[in-house]
Amino acid sequence: HFALQGKKTLIISSDPTPSLSDIFETEIGDQETPIKGVQNLFGIEISSDVVLKKWKERFGPEIYEVVSSFASVDYDFVEYIGGAPGIEEEYMLNYILELVEGGQYDLVVWDTAPAGHTLRLLHLPQIFLRHLEAATKFYMNLYSYFEKFKESVKLKKGKRTLLEIISGWENLAEKVVNFIRDTQKTDFIIVTIPEALGVRQTERIIRDFDEYQLRVNHLIINYVIQEADCEFHRLRKEMQESYIKILKDQYSSRIRLIELPLLSHEIRGVERINRISQILFKP
What we know:
Elements: E1 9-13, H1 20-24, E2 33-34, E3 41-45, H2 48-68, H3 76-82, H4 87-102, E4 107-111, H5 115-146, H6 162-181, E5 188-192, H7 196-211, E6 216-224, H8 231-251, E7 256-261, H9 270-280
């Protein structure tokens, strides 16, 4: 939709089982790839291995310098840190931010993994900030100790103090928090299904979004049966309508709900995707 309007658009999937290549019928890897048949549209399917590699390139040297300045460790220590829970998700947020700030694209669409993964992302910047506060206090204690023996604690290469590097990480985490809360730059779209599990997950996600002051503007209800031509479909349609009513009662006053019909065919290829976009962006 946006690409056809002339906006240079990038869609990224960090799902462990990405489907962009299948949907767009274009081989998409971990590099920005033009989507066949659509001008201004590019895609990336980024794996956890690539995320870790990018993270090590960006933060590895700094982490090693911080730790090795007061402890004897090999560079392999960076590999160990890179395997810590949350590193992948934290860096993905930073990666998206860098893409947006780079100005190469007018719009960046991030297709995240299922609900649990996304909710972890919301907690990470705040958790990271708390860890950095503790790290700063720890460093200051070390600084006081070493100051007895030398004027100041510098990195081995003499470029920046440990506190400057840690403060840089803290500023980055705060920048990420501000970015995902900026309603002028960021929009969250939830996709659900009209069943009990889908409704419960949606309630949980929106509750967490509210807690972290993140605004959801759109809720897409997928696989909606529009016509019941047999007893099976009639019963399913009745069930779906009861859950759609729950979602409407709770959220229609502040979130735009869009019903996407259950189709008889797969959504693959640019032509069929364009038909779906016409439903999604119908006035």
